[in-house]
Amino acid sequence: MYVAYADKLLNFAEQHATDIAREWVKALTKNQKTTAYRKVREYKLVNQGELFYKSLKKLYFERNTYENVSVYFSKWAEEQFYENIPLEEAVYALIMLRRQLWLHAEFNTLFSSALDQYQAAESINRTVLLTDYATVAIIKKYRQFTK
Q1: For a Cys staple, 120 with which of 26, 86, 109, 111, CB 3.0–4.6 Å?
Q2: Is the dihedral of CA 90, 136, 123, 10 positive or negative?
Q3: pLDDT, tens digit, 9 for 90 and up, residues 83-103
Q4: If you write DSSP's letter for every residue of 88-106 in order, what string do you get?
């Protein structure tokens, strides 16, 4: 049951990666907590978001989740660092990436029944765990660059 609901959310993310990424970029560039992203070319941000949403399923089901998420988000952090994005904005952008997936799924009534929503919470909790790991990886990578 757990895998079926995770698959539903993750397949949705994969299939709608471009649309979700575009919505993320709109939110990101309008948000007062992520003003540094306004100077980054839109296509770069859309590509970053798209890659995240398309990679989420693989990261979600990896055996060595922490290690794989760390590698993926170390590269992501490197891109942010070289775009001169402050650490706090890079972390907030990650939070917004995660939130945009949920907003898009909710808007499209992916989980319409109460039972669906209850069981979807498990996949959402796992997604939170992945982004928690990602936050640690981003902070570690920024520390390496600023030593």
Answers
A1: 111
A2: positive
A3: 999 999 999 999 999 999 888
A4: HHHHHHHHHHHHHHHHHHH
